[in-house]
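We modelled the chain as a single entity of 471 amino acids. Its sequence is:
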Amino acid sequence: MPRLLLTAAVAVLVLVAGEAPAASVARQELAIPMDDGTSLAATLYVPDGEMPAGGWPALVFLHGLAGDRGQTNAIAEGYGFVGQDYAVLTFDARGHGQSGGLVGIDGPREVADTRAVRDWLAARPDVSDTKIGAWGISYGGGAALNSLVAGVPWAAVVVVQTWTDLYTALAPQGLLKSGVVAGLAASIPETRRDPSLLALQAAILSGSPAAAHTWAAERSSLAKLGSVTTPVLIAQGRRDFLFGVGQGTTAFERLRGPKALYVGLHGHAPSSFPAADTGYLMAQARSWFDTYLRGAPATHPPAAVAVASERFAGQARWTASLPRTSRTTLALPGVSTFAPGGKSVRTTTRLRRAIEVFGSPTVRVPVAASGGWSRLVAVLTARTPQGKEIVVSAGGIPTRNGSRTVTIRLFSQATFVPRRSRLTLTLASSSTAQSASNLLYLDQPPLPASARVRIGTAVLALPGLRSPVTR
């Protein structure tokens, strides 16, 4: 895994080779006032053609953390959203770009901002007040969903590589992804951080992720998605170690209106945006908005799911439900005892068949901890017959002194593992034990020198697609 994980997990760096908006579109640079006196910098595109009755349908684009509207301008222009069909508004979120204020990570203040931006747009005489949709990526996707469950009346929503439950994304099973969180924090200049973030950061980096529960709940949409009937398209990455596939599948199951889930090649590290299938994804987004904002014929059933092949060839097959999976169980025998800085490494024989992992692998293992050993991290890798190493997934749990059998749920991913590959499971106190460049879980706080752990036979369970999409 590249050392760039920390920065790549923070911001979506959009490089779109699009053309400038057509001359028939008027572009304005604006400042939209918030109720606390803060101004948000924005760009508005309005078609110059004949306005439809009731005003133009409109789209609001929301950028990623540490990004700005220049990135969403590139997306809106490069993928054909700016033109003769929609008014388009992009804006720098609070504490970002040219906007004022401090970054609170999509909290109640940012929800109020999103509502105000939408209401400002709806109040324009040239924009429909009932046909406004939201498109958000990563941080902006969280803002779109959080505002939706808070009652902001979006007519349709598209979110890309984002979260629905921020706590399980950052501290699955109660163990903080300390390297990822450190990278997220570093992406926000100290002068632009809301004071609430400083106390939170100190608490969770000291090994107290419980302090994040209330904070994360205010920034998560999952608990309220069961009442949402707004059309929502979720695009999650196959391999995204920040916001895994499960953030999308769980949301898809709860939504009650028209819904679609696309699991594609885009994402945070180890993936990227744009990716080989981004053009296809954005065409699906455009079709989604055309259906629910402009009344075009629907191109998807009320519930639709597609999983793109790792060897994407221009199309993905859509079905009406989440794909079915089956489990492959592998035992990795042995007994290992080690101190801080040590590790246990177990490798399987060559796989008799390919597995397209889809969902959360689990590792069940007996653990005897002593001397203050407080966490166990598992990293699952695969080495293909060609010698390529793939980080399939990772996960971790807090531990305490004593003996017990634990189950570690690894991040929910979609990863194709070829036939005759060997799987390796590395168990340690941090992900850097697998590779110095794997910064998902750092050795924070440091374990005491007296800490010891004994690991017994590990049982690995892999959920795989019954009908693989990668050939």
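As a brief sanity check on the tokenised model: The first strand starts at residue 25 and ends at 33. The chain has two domains: 5-169+217-319, 325-465.
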